[in-house]
Amino acid sequence: MGAVPGAVLALALGLGHAVWAQAIPDAPAPQRVNPPLSDAAGGSIKPGAGTAPERTGGSSSTGETRVPQQPSTQAPSAEPQKDVQTTPPDIINAQELGTIIRTYTTYVTVPVTVKDNKGKQVAGLTWRNFKVYENGNYEPLKVFSVDAFPLSMAFVVDQSLPRDVMEKVNESLSALQGGLAPYDEIAVLSYSNGAHDQSGGFTGAQSARVPFILSMTKASGTEQLNATNTGPMAGCPIRQNGNCIDPNIQPGRSAGSDSFITIPKDIHTLNDAIFAAAKELATRPKERRRIIYVISDGKENGSKATYKEVLKYLQGHEIAVYGTLVGDSARWGEGYLSRFHLPFTMYDNRLVAYVTQTGGSLDSERNLNGIEKSYQSLAEEARNRYTLVYSSHESPFDGKYRNIDVRVDRPNVEVIARHGYYPSAEELR
């Protein structure tokens, strides 16, 4: 490098001395780009309450006068009130209910009928009047409906009735269609020794096929003969080729001996008939009310299906059993005694247990007009029920039975609802 002139070097040294002699400025202070959370929305953030404007004295930029918030002087209650629902449930119709049930598989539907001390339905109740408990735990309502639901009815006729009782049932069948609405549907079954599907599935309740199907259900009934096992008629009075002409009183084998005759047992396959009807109903949509209507004396003997098996199937598919008792079971006093079962004997009235456990209703014959009126009253009661829906906290996969207890805050009323249910795997598809 060449030599630097002295004047220039002196100037450079002087400028350098001047630069280093200046004070070093402070770093710039940080600027607030966003306001702190405490100033958001002009107030403070409270847990569970979001942002709320701060109540301070003076006037705001909008001209509003802010009043200072005073602390509450009311002492908190010692113990919060339990089992009180504050959030109202959804009020929907039957079609929307079917969609919600498919979407939320833990939802449980409980149709409820409330009657006064005269047996009349109590109307005008709201969701605030009901409380539902599952396995003893309070369950808030998610959906509440008072709308009438269309019926899917499986009508079951007992053809093993005595001849005189069967004749009254045959005459009453023409009145069944009058108790159903055009949007209802019906399937007709009968039983004596085994169940028989008379309609081949469901058809419209007001269809022209229904009177024809009901006419095919009519039967002659059975003769109720008293077997004689003592006296001169106890043996075989008439013989042919050495054998008794009547095999029912043939001495020996299952019929007994010359001194004693085993009385043949009656066959009343009520369990099989209800099971067959329940299988038909299990395929119907959930926005329809599934019911089985049985007209019978309630006797059960000789079925392949057991009572526990059939009841579990009913409780797993939301099916209610209704019935009209006829014959001996419909008589005052005798009908009540027929509900008790003696070991190793035929069940004289098994229908009562089905109705009670599934939340249905039971009527009695009284006379021909009583049978016809029961068709209309029970169908109307099944259609117009309070519909309660809650979300179960139990696992839908355990398959265990759950108890249901429905309570109404009205005195002197009867609450009719199913006692419990089994979670069905078919609802989780």
Explain the overall architecture.
- 22% of the residues lie in helices and 21% in strands.
- It contains nine helices and 20 strands.
- The chain has helices spanning 6-21, 94-103, 163-172, 209-217, 270-281, 307-316, 334-337, 351-358, 368-383; strands at 43-46, 50-53, 90-91, 107-115, 130-134, 137-139, 141-145, 151-158, 185-191, 195-197, 203-204, 239-240, 243-244, 289-296, 320-325, 362-364, 386-391, 402-408, 414-416, 420-421.
- Strands 8, 9, 10, 11, 14, 15 and 16 form a seven-stranded mixed β-sheet that branches. The chain has a five-stranded mixed β-sheet with strand order 3-7-17-4-19, with helices on one face.
- Helix 6 links the parallel strand 14 and strand 15.
- The longest helix has 16 residues, at 6-21.
State the gist of this model.
By secondary structure, the chain is α/β, with parallel strands linked by helices.
CATH superfamily of one domain: von Willebrand factor, type A domain
Using the coordinates shown, work out and report the CATH topology of one domain: Rossmann fold
Rounded average pLDDT: 77
Series of secondary-structure elements, N-terminal to C-terminal: HEEEHEEEEEHEEEHEEHEHEHHEHEEEE
From the spread of the alpha carbons, the general shape counts as elongated
Task: Point out poorly predicted stretches.
Answer: 1-21, 37-45, 47-69
Give helix % range: 10-25%
Oligomeric nature of the chains: single chain
Q: Please identify the top-level CATH class of one domain.
A: Alpha Beta
Instruction: Report how far apart the termini are.
Output: 92 Å
Strand content: 15-25%
Please, how many helices?
9
Main sheet record: 7 strands, mixed
Structural class: alpha/beta
Give Rg in angstroms: 39 Å
- Under the CATH scheme, the architecture of one domain is 3-Layer(aba) Sandwich
SS elements, strand count: 20
